Amino acid sequence: MSLETQLNTDLKTAMKAHDKLSLNVIRMMKAALTNEKVKQGHDLTPDEELTIVSRELKQRKESMEEFAKGNRDDLVEGVKAEIAIVEKYAPKQMSEDDVAKIVADSIAKVSASGMGDFGKVMGVVMPQVKGKADGAVVNKTVKAQLSK
């Protein structure tokens, strides 16, 4: 089932349940998908859909951090609820141990010896973890392993 089909099904369910928060989040996700579809000029591939879900999730996490910095706990709670809804459409996230293993394998693969090889390692790691791991976690893990 495509993401768009899943969103349409969930949209109907949210409407019937009068769940305004889910309804708003699903509508935003559908709008993001539609905008990207128009921009690309073709139906989206599962990878492109995954990229959009990841972008939506990242935006909400960044908003939550900013609200927390501004001591806006009322807004933080709302964004947390939105994140929970968006996460239903994202693939299961990898653990930090799994990311560390992939990074270690990639460092060995490209024979990286220091921080100068950061770009090479990231270039090999990111396609393997796309959508399954947070870029900040990958970045931190690569830096930690290269600085050893």
From TrEMBL:
Q: What is this protein called?
A: GatB/YqeY domain-containing protein
InterPro entries recorded: Asn/Gln_tRNA_amidoTrase-B-like, GatB_Yqey_C_2, YqeY/Aim41, YqeY/Aim41_N
Against PANTHER family, the record matches this protein to: ALTERED INHERITANCE OF MITOCHONDRIA PROTEIN 41, MITOCHONDRIAL
Q: What is the lineage of its organism?
A: Bacteria, Bacillati, Bacillota, Bacilli, Lactobacillales
Task: Give the Gene Ontology MF terms in alphabetical order.
Answer: carbon-nitrogen ligase activity, with glutamine as amido-N-donor
Native organism: Levilactobacillus koreensis
